[in-house]
Amino acid sequence: MAEKNEHGTVFDYLRWRGDLTFAQDGFNEVDNLILCIICYLNFHRFDELRSKDPNNAVKIGDISRRMTEKDEQLGLSWLEYIPLMEQAAKTKRFEDVALFGFEDEHDEDKEMQFQALSFLLPDDSVFVSYMGTDTSLVGWKENFNMSFLEAVPAQERAVAYAEEIARACSKRMLRIGGHSKGGNLAAWAAIHLAPEIRDGQLTAVYNNDGPGFCSGVLDTEAYQAVASRLQTYIPESSIVGVLLEHAEDYEVIDSTNRAVLQHEPLSWSVEANHFVHLGQRSQLGQLSDGVLQEWVGSMTAQERQEFTDALFTIFSADNKIRTLDDLRTGGLASRAALLRSYIGADEKKKKIINEIFHRLAVDVREELRKATEEELKNAKETIAGWHKQEK
């Protein structure tokens, strides 16, 4: 395999192939990721983007020229995403792409975090994109809720949103995508689309390192109806995309980052008009797969719900902590508030949290022991091979 530094990223893709229109080189997996990254940006100031009428769509360059640092991305990344949108808008490939249908909703009562944006493409298609998890605690709790609820509010809203956009663009092909939690929403929406849209318009679904589903979803006829159009990409060592279950064959891809930082989409390696595909997950990735699956699998749905409720009751710290930034910037005060909330929690909540994290610790130790034994076995076999060669 070539060295990582010989590959490019989405920025290089725009420089290498930005002069090719969609008519010259059709929509591909890298285009999908670019649009999903743009979906993370903060479009709240741009009221004109909230219209779901495609006739009111606004060219990408008209928006990118007006963006400032206060419009930067709302996800968990520490990187800036506006430069990618600006670079895309200056290429022949994306200059005629138009944005519309911006929607965002944070509802603590519903435990819902949702943001979506749609793109009109020059190939007579529409791309519906869902944003991943932001820094809000309500967004993180909704992620945890996926492990025991049949459907979370963001998933239900994702279906309705995709159907609204598809019906507004009834003469266009439909593609749906998202990164992280957004990838899960994209797959969920596709599975639950009205049959006339699913069979008449839907051409592709992109889950970019997003979680899978509880096993019951994978056995349904609706899932089977879209499985061949579902494309799932997971970096070799990322852990987000292997949460819950994937029945589809996912593609393992390369990243310029290591370990969990491979979840960052700007790090994904690109070659020509596709990601750099690898044969299998890294040893670290395989290790995390086993630990996470064992951890989640060891809990009943009731235990997952009790664990989630207990954990986020403590995180909320009497409503003083509402985002991950509050935890980070609050310093010792925030940590003290968490400790007080934990100490003040009833014994049942503390027992649930201690038990679940104990299971995780045991699973990690066991997997590390297995990995170490395997490494020792491989080393012994290698040394034995050297001895044979010397004889």
What would the keywords be for this entry?
single chain; 391 residues; 2 domains; nine-stranded mixed β-sheet; globular; disordered N terminus
Protein described:
This protein has 391 residues and is an alpha/beta fold. It folds into two domains: 4-280, Rossmann fold (3-Layer(aba) Sandwich), CATH 3.40.50; 299-390, no CATH class. 46% of the residues lie in helices and 15% in strands. The chain contains 15 helices and eleven strands. It has helices at residues 10-17, 29-38, 60-64, 82-89, 137-145, 153-168, 181-191, 195-200, 215-218, 221-226, 283-297, 301-316, 324-329, 331-344, 347-390; strands at residues 58-59, 98-107, 112-121, 125-130, 173-179, 202-208, 230-235, 251-253, 270-271, 274-275, 277-278. The strands form two sheets. A nine-stranded mixed sheet has the order 1-2-3-4-5-6-7-8-11, sandwiched between helices. Strands 9-10 form a two-stranded antiparallel ribbon. Strand 2 (98-107) and strand 3 (112-121) form a beta hairpin. Helix 11 packs antiparallel against helix 15 and helix 12 packs across helix 15. The radius of gyration is 22 Å and the shape is globular. The two termini are 32 Å apart. The model is unreliable at 1-5 (pLDDT under 50).
